[in-house]
Amino acid sequence: MNGWVVLLWSFVAALVLIIGGIFGSLVVMERITLFPEAAPTAVPTPVETGVVDMSYSVMILNATPDEGLDDQFREELIAQGWAADIVYASDSSSQDFATTTVFYVADDDELAAIGLAGLLDGAKVEQSDAYADLNNTEGKQLTVVIGLDRSEAGAPAPEDTPAP
Fold first, then answer.
1. What span, in angstroms and rounded, lies between the C-alpha atoms of 22 and 147?
2. Following DSSP, what letter does each residue of 17-47 receive, concatenated?
3. Is domain 57-160 in CATH 3.30.70.2390, yes or no?
4. Could you give the C-alpha distances from 105 to 23, 82, 84, 128, in angstroms and in order?
5. What is the tens place of the pLDDT at every residue in 92-118?
6. What are the strands of the beta sheet with 87-91, ordered from one edge?
7. Would the pTM of this model clear 0.70, i.e. be above it?
């Protein structure tokens, strides 16, 4: 019986050494990290929802080949509470603008532009003074350029999209 105990202990000792060697090798090769660093947690950035400010005058330009799309957008804004005398609609000089965009001039107008874009089912928002003089109003103004993404014709391929 004494021989079987020695054989059993020899087997256990060999097994411990083999497992220890494998574990040590994995640690040295950095396959196993004994004390892993805590992974940094992602902090969600707040999404600005904007403010719907109906004191702004709004110029709507139809930059698509679809007739009357500017009037539809105007009626939609009036139905949502904008005063009819400060919402203007017109055709644009081009008919190939890719993405419906709300343009604002001053930094202070950004939240109002984001709010208006939200009412228009997620239009793009961009700061530009290209449309600053379209309305002859003394008040604050936003400009909506209706793009081919809202047209029945559909948006062009990205390589065909002209710069605004």
1. 64
2. HHHHHHHHHHHHTTSS-SSPPPPPPPPPPPP
3. yes
4. 64, 20, 22, 5
5. 888 888 899 999 988 888 899 999 988
6. 87-91, 57-62, 141-146, 101-104, 124-127
7. no
- How large a percentage of the chain has pLDDT more than 90? 21
Give the chain's length.
164
Residue 45 contacts residue 65 (beta carbons within 8 Å): no
Q: Can you tell me which residue has the tokens 């005063």?
A: 83
In degrees rounded to 5, what are phi and psi of residue 136?
A: -95, 50
Strand partners, 126: 103
Whole-angstrom Cα distance, residue 154 to residue 64? Answer: 9
d(CA 161, CA 164): 9
| CA-derived radius of gyration, the chain | 33
How does 96-116 read in b/e, with b if 16+ C-beta sit within 10 Å?
bbbbbbbbbbeeebbbbbbbb
